[in-house]
Amino acid sequence: MSGFFNSSIGRKVAMALSAFFLMFFLLQHFAINILSIFNPDVFNEVSHFMGTNPLVQYALQPVLIFGVVFHFVMGFVLELRNKKANGIKYAKNNGAANSSWMSRNMIYSGIAILAFVVLHFIDFWIPEINTKYIVGDMSGLHNGEFRYFHELVEKFENPLRVVAYVIAFVFLALHLLHGFTSAFQSMGATAGRKKTLQNIGKAYSIIIPLGFIVIALFHHFNH
Ligand code: HEM
Which pLDDT does position 9 carry in this prediction? Predict the structure, then answer.
């Protein structure tokens, strides 16, 4: 196993696998959060299920946290190794896309996303953990109603938070625009399907962050 992580290709494959996992998480995270625009009651029901289901809480959530930390740590390791290798860049055999501005700056967009994730955990995740596991209130209720929608809307009252989130989502789009195809490439999956994959990658990388921007702005201006 240590041999795997010591090889350049092993590290890239590990990076790609964690990236796929995070992109899948992001898709379901988006699907749930967009419900807050279209149907707050369903958003509340789904949030309560996800927040109290033992399988989600004690199996999926720890795997997710591990995936997030792993991706960041591995990203820094790859960056340092690439720097050391002097010019031998990550996702090397990528033709014209190789020299794109974004491919050289994955570490910077990554750091911006890391800063967002820290802020986002302080905003949402830590209060959740506090209510459920420290206060010990698993009911999901406040004044007899589900609290999730109300708590989410409250967070987007502050224009500074909305601006910080929107900037982070732009960085997320830039990170994904390169990362999506790069991850498939590290798995050797592009040959023959390059154009289709690139198009799916572009659509995903723009629609998901744009959708998150819409959620933040919608709640800021509508409540
Ligand atoms: C407008 C956009 C977003 C909203 C409204 C939102 C909302 C939330 C909420 C309510 C939680 C708490 C869930 C819980 O623990 O019960 C949460 C957790 C989390 N969010 Fe977001 N999120 C947004 C965007 C993002 C983005 C873009 C990312 C990743 C880059 C992200 C990553 C996470 C992670 C890793 C967690 C902790 C895991 C979890 O418990 O689900 N979120 N988010």
Answer: 86
Best residue among 29, 47, 122, 167 to mutate for probing ligand 1, ranked by most atoms within 8 Å of CB:
29
Lowest mean pLDDT among 11-15, 88-92, 135-139, 152-156: 88-92
> Which residues does a 6 A CB cutoff place in the pocket of ligand 1?
26, 29, 33, 51, 61, 64, 68, 113, 117, 120, 124-125, 128, 152, 172, 212, 215-216
Q: Which residue segment(s) compose the domain that 31 sits in?
A: 2-222
Residue 117: how many CA atoms within 13 Å on its side-chain side? 16
Q: CATH no. for residue 155?
A: 1.20.1300
Q: Answer whether 99's CB lies under 8 Å from 130's CB.
A: no
The more confidently predicted of residues 211 and 90 is 211
d(CA 83, CA 74): 14
pLDDT, residue 103, reads 74
Q: Residue written as tokens 């459920």?
A: 132
Instruction: Please say if the pLDDT value at position 191 is more than 80.
Output: no
Can you tell me the distance from the alpha carbon of 212 to that of 207, in angstroms, rounded to the nearest whole number? 9
* Three-class secondary structure of residue 141 per DSSP: strand
Pick from 30, 201, 13, 197: nearest CA to 102: 201
User: What's the average model confidence in pLDDT over 163-183?
Assistant: 96
Distance, in Å, from the CA atom of 211 to the CA atom of 209, rounded to the nearest integer, reads: 5
Q: Which residues contact 98 (CB under 8 A, 6 or more apart)?
A: 89, 91, 92
